[in-house]
Amino acid sequence: MEKTESESGKGKRVVVIGGGIAGSLASKFLQFDSDLTLIDPKEYFEIIWASLRSMVEPSFAERSVINHKKYLQNGRVVTSPAVNITDTDVVTADGLVFGYDYLVIATGHNDVLPKTRQEKLSQYQAEYEKIKSSESILIVGGGPSGVELAAEIAVDFPEKKVTIVHNGPRLLEFVGQKAADKAFDWMKSKRVEVILNQRVDLNSASDGNKTYRTSGGETIHADCHFLCTGKPLSSEWLKGTVLKDNLDGKGRLMVDEYLRVKGRKNVFAIGDITDVLEMKQGYIAEKHASVATKNIKLLMSGGNEKKMSTYKPGPDIAIISLGRKDSVAQFPFMTVSGCIPGLIKSKDLFVGKTRKARGLDPNIVEP
């Protein structure tokens, strides 16, 4: 293993593991106050809630898939997964060792993703071609990804037959019944078939045979399918590290009100990997990044721990886009659907706002 020495010698050494929504923003906030290293298996950050639009409009990904180096002018980017953490170092799969004074874990969920931005853009182009060339499409999973993908296809390709199969009693189980009902009614109005309380045997359709069987005995004809089920947390690897006892029974890192890993003075966790009881969403992960980085800056400057910022979960707000104009929005005191809540999210999917938060031009396409 190769020990990597600090290049800048400037400030405390901060290592951020994970370059998703939370990790990218934390890195951006810390880059000029520390000797920063961002460790991520891929060379880019993706505005993940824009990914389903990119499947029907590949050019949309030009703004939503961003090389880490575009917003990190003063940090080191290491394109390799982290595989171990000790009390003083982080080890990557490439055998590099990075010492840290402060550590931020923002690994989110496990997903198999291309390593380079160009490969990711090519993947969206291939998915678009798959959708375009299919007359019928099966979507497995009725959570936010499945519902938003079905909506994008139904709006952009109204002639295609879209079927959602969901192994649950209703769509969008993470929100309330009202929001789920409104999404279901919208799907019905767009002639999207929704099959609930059933699983799909994806192995039942072989090459040339495009008929899928469900656990309820139904058969579905589809030219292609997309799997939109939940991804596991990216925390299994932590069981072999010094943080193994800081995981709860669900594989989440237990944090205190300052977003520090409980029992650790210099290790923070942000985003979906935490055990904070709240809806796991992108804008919440960004709030985590803001609180944790404020606290790290305070500690690095020798500030009093008692002055650290606390994180308090806010009310559950969810906006599920339904194509380019409509959405379903759940607020604490009401649930609405249609083009009015659609104005909040559906046109740009917060891409401009998310780019701006990282110091990038909201509209410029990455070269």
TrEMBL record:
Pfam families: Pyr_redox_2. GO terms for molecular function: electron-transferring-flavoprotein dehydrogenase activity; flavin adenine dinucleotide binding. The keyword DNA repair does not apply. Residues 13-281 form the FAD/NAD(P)-binding domain. InterPro entries: FAD/NAD-binding_dom. One of its GO terms (cellular component) is cytoplasm. Keywords: FAD, Flavoprotein, Oxidoreductase. Putative FAD-dependent oxidoreductase. Belongs to the FAD-dependent oxidoreductase family. This is FAD/NAD(P)-binding domain superfamily. It comes from Arabidopsis suecica (Swedish thale-cress). The lineage of its organism: Eukaryota, Viridiplantae, Streptophyta, Embryophyta, Tracheophyta.
